[in-house]
Amino acid sequence: MDILVTGAAGFIGAALAEALCARGDRVTGIDNLNDYYPVSLKRDRLARVAKSAGDAFRFIECDFADHAALERALESHSFTRIVHLGAQAGVRYSLENPRAYAQSNLNGHLNVLELGRQRGVEHLVYASSSSVYGGNDSVPFSVDDRVDHPYSLYAATKKADELMSESYAHLYRLPQTGLRFFTVYGPWGRPDMMPWIFTSKILKGEPIPVFNHGRMQRDFTFIDDIVRGVIACLDAAPTDDGKAKPGGSVAPHAIYNIGNNRPEELMRVIGIIEGACGRKAEIEMHPMQKGDVPRTFADIEAIAHDHGFAPETSADEGFPRFVHWFKAYHGLD
Fold first, then answer.
1. Residue 216's pLDDT is what?
2. In sequence order, what are the residues at sequence separation of 6 or more whose Cβ sits closer than 8 angstroms to the Cβ of residue 92?
3. In which domain, by residue range, is 255 found?
4. Domain count, the chain
5. What secondary structure letter does DSSP report for 182?
6. pLDDT band for position 242 (50/70/90)?
7. What angle, rounded to 10 degrees, do the helices at 108-119 and 67-74 form?
8. ∠229-235-239 over CA atoms, to 5°?
9. Which of 34, 49, 65, 204 is the most buried (most CB within 10 A)?
10. Single pTM value for the model
């Protein structure tokens, strides 16, 4: 298959592009390479994909939030399916720079929907987020839960993306799958996320900031499990049969949680990272941050039933693998 992957220099995008090429697909990847975190990491990811994929991977530097630039960049490129992973990420950054989220996550998502409609693609898979659940008291979080009370603008934009996708599925019968990712981590992860921050500070002997005084739970999901789940969904577009899909749509639009289905206590995870680093952490306790939530927990029954998704990597295995990669990447071994 010929597949377009947006956010191809990102954590999940690069891992997905590499896996798709490895199984014989041809991937066109786009990314604007913005400086939300060091561009050098993004370029290193791209170099890794290019080395393993060869001619099966083509990269185009392009901002998909600019519809004219997107159309020009892809004018001579063909693809039958799209995986839209590009977005302005980060809950906390949305408090500092909200307009970046409107531009990338709202305008950008619309542009990709239009691209899919105009090209008549077979399937558009897009990234949503567990953040849409806000402070949901019902656990585990189900795709059938109401998600009308986001705790952050980031979460609000992801819910808006789901609504825009529903309208395109209804109006144009564009087959789509939305994936609510739950705290993805692993080698080549993002520097603004907890595993990177804690590992870096522990190895440097610096204090780590622990919010809500450590009373946090996260459904940490290893990158390899995420990639397998995305590919399983990509290969099976929702049917336009008028029947209700996960998430409630009767159009060809399904929404799934994709998580580990096992929330971990933050303090236990810190202990795993300490063990992998070979030193104890100096901990600074803080109150809960604005926009954050105390707990996430994915109900994955729907994606397990429809696509056979079953996470394989526990926190006890996954976090040491991240720490090992982190040390190697920074020449600390």
1. 86
2. 192, 289, 291, 292
3. 2-182+223-260+299-312
4. 1
5. -
6. very high
7. 40
8. 110
9. 49
10. 0.95
Q: What is the DSSP letter of 261?
A: S
Q: pLDDT at residue 291 above 70?
A: no
Q: Which residue has the higher pLDDT, 148 or 111?
A: 111
Q: How far apart are CA 322 and CA 141, in angstroms?
A: 26
Distance CA 123, CA 307 (A): 15
Please indicate, yes or no, if residue 58 is contained in any of the structural domains: yes
Q: What is the rounded CA–CA span in Å between residue 169 and residue 177?
A: 10
The tens digit of pLDDT for each residue in 212-225 reads 888 888 999 999 99
Cα 12–chain centre separation: 6
Asked whether the predicted pLDDT for residue 124 surpasses 70, the reply is yes
Q: What is the mean pLDDT of residues 15-42?
A: 97
Residue 44 within any structural domain of the chain: yes
CATH of the domain at 252: 3.40.50.720
Set 151, 154, 168, 256: catalytic member: 154
- Phi and psi at 267, nearest 5°, equal -65, -30
pLDDT category at 89 given cuts 50, 70, 90 is confident
Active site annotation includes 154: yes
Q: What would the two tokens of residue 49 be?
A: 């994909």
Preceding amide of 140 cis, omega within 30: yes
State the DSSP H helix or E strand holding residue 26, giving kind and residue range, or none if neither. strand 26-31
In a domain, 281, yes or no: no
Rounded to whole angstroms, the Cα distance separating 41 from 184 reads: 17
Q: Is the dihedral of CA 91, 47, 63, 229 positive or negative?
A: negative
The torsion of the CA quartet 266, 97, 115, 32, rounded to 10 degrees, works out to -90
The answer to whether the CB of 79 falls within 8 A of the CB of 3 is: yes
Q: Which two tokens stand for residue 68?
A: 């004219």
What tens digit of pLDDT does each residue of 166-200 get? Answer: 999 999 999 999 999 999 999 999 999 999 999 99
**25 vs 49: CA distance, rounded Å:** 13
Q: Evaluate whether residue 128 is within a structural domain.
A: yes
